[in-house]
């Protein structure tokens, strides 16, 4: 009896489970966005399909990918070329994957379709096929990397049909300036109306805010006549120029960009020939003409009232002619209006890490209130180990002595740490601003295109530039056998005033382990500043690190 009751209960439970499963299925097929038409290409990942995490640099296969790879015919490396419908030629298949999604990472169900779409896309460097040969993705980087799951790739070759022929940029526009022979660069500096001049370098890539930024700097400067702009405009047809005005200058000469037109030097480069931030910043440095101070900024900035005087007061308060004040500026939205900033903190760069490409990149700048017991209640800036490219103020001799590298195209991750190494070994010290002088619109509703859209025009540039930096600084290379541009390595390399090895020991950078010490506590409590500033040289030209103990970091 008991057994029959038990069996009846079991059958009842099985029935409930079946009904629930059946009902769930009918509800599922009616949900919005659920596609039950098997004739259409899948949008989401399916077993055997390449699953993409947008924050990763490569495809991550589904768990059963390797299983499918054994079930089906394996790819074989063939030294041949395949061709898309429009004549674009690809080398492959080659074992490995291509990094970075060229579009939205959506896989295509056939190789032919993926090759044809890639052929018409400037941002596509090739196609990576999953090991199961059921998903084909458009990838951005044409460098084949090792795959653990038998992925194979087809690399787009450079041709007119592939829409990726590189074109040489026009010659850089040079100012009249050349470093004087036999003259101490520390003595450089021009004046206008008894005011020290400020050279403002801007590398703008298709940025509609470029002209707004220039006008904003002029509007809120206490002495706009002393500002001299070096602008590298990298625009495509239809983009707003950096000298845009609402009315022609002959109709309304009182507009700021008309009134100070002679103060704005412009180097125009077609956007399709632009090759990244350091490419633009290097060309901007060529427009320097012996100005007393130098300010490097992004093409989208908002300034506070009398920002020029504030920068100079803070610089002078550092008591260090080799000071470089830089940071990732605070968010502009909701924080600045009519030249008045609501930000009471200062952002410091203190946390960095090695990335997968073997280069160093900084984390977000942490906002903090400087300790007035250590740095006083005035304008003195706060020491930090690192440097930021988007907002940097120094004496003009920094540009003359340590210009941006000529030969690191398509570099992003390596831009800031490499300049920090070079500047520091030339004797310069890095500070964050004491108070806000400019703000950055991180949350723009409509962001401009980025230089990455040219990635396929210059295949391998980023990797070769990274290799150049690793060679320059003695870092462990990620791709030891890779050839790279060795032009002017000495000119754009390390300085001779301080050894890089001292920086690595003091600030805890380990090339072999690829680790970087976190300095946020020491920067934000100003203990790093207190520990190091006591070693300032008597001539006020940088900290004397020969006297600084290697383990001084224990003090912060």
First CA to last CA: what distance? 79 Å
Helical fraction equals 10-25%
Count every helix, treating DSSP H or I runs of 4 or more residues as helices.
Answer: 14
As a percent range, the share of strand residues is 15-25%
**What strand order characterises the main sheet?**
14-13-12-15-25-17-26-24
Mind describing the biggest β-sheet? Answer: 8 strands, mixed
Q: What integer value in Å does the Rg equal?
A: 28 Å
Number of distinct beta strands? 29
Instruction: Describe the global form.
Output: globular
Class derived from helix and strand content: alpha+beta
Name the poorly predicted regions.
Answer: 1-14, 16-20, 22-79
Mean pLDDT: 86
Compact overview of the structure:
This protein has 556 residues and is α+β, with helices and mostly antiparallel strands. Strands 14-13-12-15-25-17-26-24 form an eight-stranded mixed beta sheet, with helices on both faces. The chain has a five-stranded antiparallel beta sheet with strand order 3-4-9-6-7, with helices on one face. Strands 1-2 form a two-stranded antiparallel ribbon.
